[in-house]
Amino acid sequence: MITLKSYVCGEWQSGEGEARTLRHAVTGEDIATASSEGLNFAAVADYGREKGGPALRGMSFHERAALLKRMAETLNENRKELYGIAASYGATRGDAKMDVDGGIATLGFYAGLGSKKLPASRFLTDGDETRLSKQGNFAGRHIYVPLEGVAVQINAYNFPSWGMLEKLAPSFLAGIPNIVKPATPSAWLSFRMVELLVGSGILPDGSLQLICGSVGDLLDHLECQDVVAFTGSAATGRKIRSHPNLVANSVRVNIEADSLNCIVLGPDVAPGSDTFVYFVKEVLGEMTAKAGQKCTAIRRILVPKETESAVIESLKEGLSSVQVGDPAVEGVRMGPLIDRDAVVTARKGIETLKQEADIVFGDPNRREFEGAHNEAALMEPVLLHCRQPEAASVLHDIEVFGPVATVFGYESLDQAIRLARRGGGSLVGSIFSEDEDFCTEATFGLAPYHGRLMVMNSKAARESTGHGTVMPHLIHGGPGRAGGGEELGGLRSVYHYMQRVALQGDPERLRRICSPAI
Ligand code: NAP
After folding, report:
1. Which of 278, 400, 493, 497 gives 170 a disulfide partner, CB atoms 3.0 to 4.6 angstroms apart?
2. Is the dihedral of CA 377, 383, 385, 390 positive or negative?
3. How far is the CA of 231 from the centre of ligand 1 (A)?
């Protein structure tokens, strides 16, 4: 069994006391333990600020970009081993690629952004100089400088690689050191990646620290220059957002929480048409990729009343061909949930959804899966159908974090928009239609409640990266229940780790101060 040590204050340290055990999602075997008890979290934060911060801030954007590139190369050379570790939390090869390759690609994207779009300086100017006096001897200009604290990442279990790297890339580029705290059930992958990066010798001392186990009292030691980037459930997000020390010091907090993402089918789309086929494919992919354990997964399927039964029949047909089991077995397309507790929680969630919807496909209580270990955390995809969407409440409120989605029939576009908004703010929504007016109206109806919208026709669907795939060029996050945060989106997320400052004074002096970044 592996002991997942923490990498803090320049060394690998074991925690004390009773450790948490990580179990293999397919075999149920104990694979690792993690404990952070006894770590000096105040010293961890100080080490990042005092060692890692000056080292990163001493580098130009181009040097930081080169560092990201080397980090991507190091991880890329070890991809096969990392896929093997991803199998321990139930990932199929496709799931592992999404997590591992997606994370490495995000590092590469920010490396490119830093080297091509940013100057060879250590700060940025923002916009042009503004004349502020009649004679022109008093002017203003905004600059961005790196914060001088640490970025604390607290991540969810479903993306131990991508979740870590998508936060690390923009923050490193900004010049701020990271303290990474992966979710314990899948922490082995993050641990190994950090071990590879530390072992490569490319990281400045103190720039990357790792906590395996609980976050302890770290949040009590954060100050006004620090940043917290959280991904996980809405419930934990609320606790972090209201943490007294973070509130008292106005620590920047970004929350990426759960979300009841929807997909809307237009009334113009006839069953059997290309658009219909792409729509069905999208839903099937979202329900089964990573066994539905994606914050961006489609949970609510909004379709015109008249197409409802055709959609349900097509989804049933598609789902029946998905082989669920041990991802190591040939032909298996959907692996297990993270652990058996997650299966129990998902089953309970489905029981609640059944108050307002009927199961039309899948048995949440199925226990036998061909060729799979008895201990595997497996669950069939479950499709529900809600006959009275307006009267429903839990269906618009409870996220079942597994291969579960519900079909709702709508009677008008207004109703579809109303139902979509009942999710209370989502990460992503999709609209499938060839009708331009429908798409435009649906877009503006859904937009205030979403962080990202895929407005699809059959032409775009052919080349689409998919509803659930987050691209670093575009923002990831959403309003309301989705956490109200924003990540990625190109340079936007780099600015998040910097302070924007309005400089005022003699324009010549401002030009001289700003010249390295212009
Ligand atoms: P979680 O239980 O909320 O845990 C998330 C992280 O918070 C873990 O690292 C956890 O550590 C830590 N944590 C738990 N309690 C804490 C506390 N009181 N103070 C500080 N940290 C604490 O979520 P999860 O079960 O790992 O992930 C699944 C959820 O994440 C789903 O709801 C999913 O929708 C959401 N998610 C959202 C996004 C997004 O980008 N919006 C992406 C992925 C997942 P331990 O594991 O050690 O307890």
Report:
1. 493
2. positive
3. 6
How far, in Å, from the CA of 199 to the mean position of ligand 1? 28
Distance, CA 452 to ligand 1 centroid (Å)? Answer: 21
pLDDT at residue 375 tops 90: no
Q: Work out whether the CA dihedral 266, 434, 421, 102 comes out positive or negative.
A: positive
Q: Is 236 near ligand 1, meaning CB less than 6 Å away?
A: yes
Residue 157 CB less than 6 A away from ligand 1: yes
Pocket test for ligand 1, best of 231, 256, 261 (most atoms within 8 A of CB): 231
Inform me whether the pLDDT recorded for 518 exceeds 90: no
Would residue 212 show up in a list of annotated catalytic residues for this protein?
no
Concatenating the DSSP letter of every residue in 286-333 gives HHHGGGG--TT-EEEEEEEGGGHHHHHHHHHHHHHT--BS-TTSTT--
Does residue 99 have its Cβ closer than 6 Å to ligand 1? no
Q: Contact at 8 Å (CB) between 227 and 53? A: no
pLDDT of residue 340: 92
User: Residues 386-395, buried b or exposed e (16+ Cβ, 10 A)?
Assistant: beebeebeeb
**Distance in angstroms (rounded) separating the CA atoms of residues 309 and 89:** 35
Catalytic residue list contains 295: yes
Task: Summarize pLDDT for 96-121 with one digit per residue, the tens.
Answer: 999 999 999 999 999 999 999 999 99
Burial of 306 (0-12, 13-18, 19+ CB in 10 A): exposed
Which tokens sit at 114?
Answer: 């830093």
Tell me, what's the pLDDT at 495?
Answer: 97
- Sort residue 216 into left (φ over 0), alpha (ψ -120 to 50) or beta: left
Which two structure tokens, joined as six digits, stand for 433?
């239609």
Q: Is 27 in the pocket of ligand 1 (CB under 6 A)?
A: no
Answer yes or no: is pLDDT of 464 > 90.
yes
Which residue out of 190, 253, 295 has the highest number of ligand 1 atoms within 8 Å of its CB and is therefore the one to mutate? Answer: 295
Q: Which atom of ligand 1 is nearest to the CA of 182?
A: 9
Backbone angles phi, psi at 501, to 5 degrees: -125, 135
How far does residue 144's CA lie from ligand 1's centre (Å)?
31
Render pLDDT for 219-233 as a digit per residue (tens, 0 to 9): 999 999 999 999 999
First to last CA, the chain: 53
Between CA 371 and CA 387 the distance in angstroms is 37
**CB-based contacts of 396, cutoff 8 Å, min separation 6:** 260, 300, 419, 422, 423, 424
Of 235, 81, 256, 103, the residue nearest 169 (C-alpha): 103
Q: Return the residue whose CA atom lies nearest to atom 22 of ligand 1.
A: 236
